[in-house]
Design a protein that fits this description.
The protein contains 3 helices and 8 strands; from the N terminus they run ββαββββαββα. By secondary structure, it is α/β, with parallel strands linked by helices. The longest helix has 11 residues. The chain starts with a strand and ends in a 6-residue tail after the last helix.
């Protein structure tokens, strides 16, 4: 599961109507491991998109099971899906819900992209809700376009050797 952080950035932006600067707060989604890394990535990535000073208004964990970006969408939609899962302890079926973030052009497109992203099998899940979000952009941890094709990047679990080699705190 992804560790995502919704970061709200406050800065001065020219008003489209009057041309005067006005203070805005916009939400951006960052894939990061910790709050500190998310904050660091904000300060690294945002100067490319925002001219002038900006401040982080808030950082909070976002609970999305998956992010489905696309080339032709212009708005981020939160899609709630649910599916049946068998509880191993009791052997009963229970309904499990997940939130997915989808970049799409409208609600119908968000549903279509969710179905396609879930391998097109609509028998295994159902779409319960689609809602437009205030998220302006998503910054993945690794840009798949910049990685060599023969390399697969992913996070791995720490091994006992990794834990033994951690620096000791006094």
């Amino acid at each position: 599961m992804l560790t995502l952080f919704e970061c709200k950035i406050r800065y001065m932006k020219p008003d489209e109507r009057s041309g005067k600067d006005k203070r805005v707060t916009e939400a951006y989604l960052f894939d990061a491991i910790t709050y500190t890394e998310a904050e660091e990535r904000v300060y690294k990535e945002m100067p490319q998109y925002i001219s002038g000073e900006f401040a982080i208004a808030s950082i909070r964990k976002a609970k999305y099971a998956e992010v489905l970006p696309s080339d032709d969408g212009d708005r981020w939609y939160k899609v709630k899906i649910s599916f049946l899962m068998v509880d191993e302890a009791s052997g009963r079926e229970k309904r499990v819900s997940q939130m997915i973030l989808v970049l799409a052009s409208d609600v119908k497109d968000a549903v279509d992209k969710t179905i396609a992203g879930m391998n097109g099998d609509t028998d295994d899940f159902e779409v319960n809700m689609v809602m437009e979000t205030a998220i302006m952009d998503f910054f993945p941890l690794f840009d798949k376009d910049k990685l060599p094709e023969d390399k697969e990047v992913g996070r791995r679990e720490a091994t006992p050797e990794d834990l033994e080699n951690l620096p000791k705190l006094n």
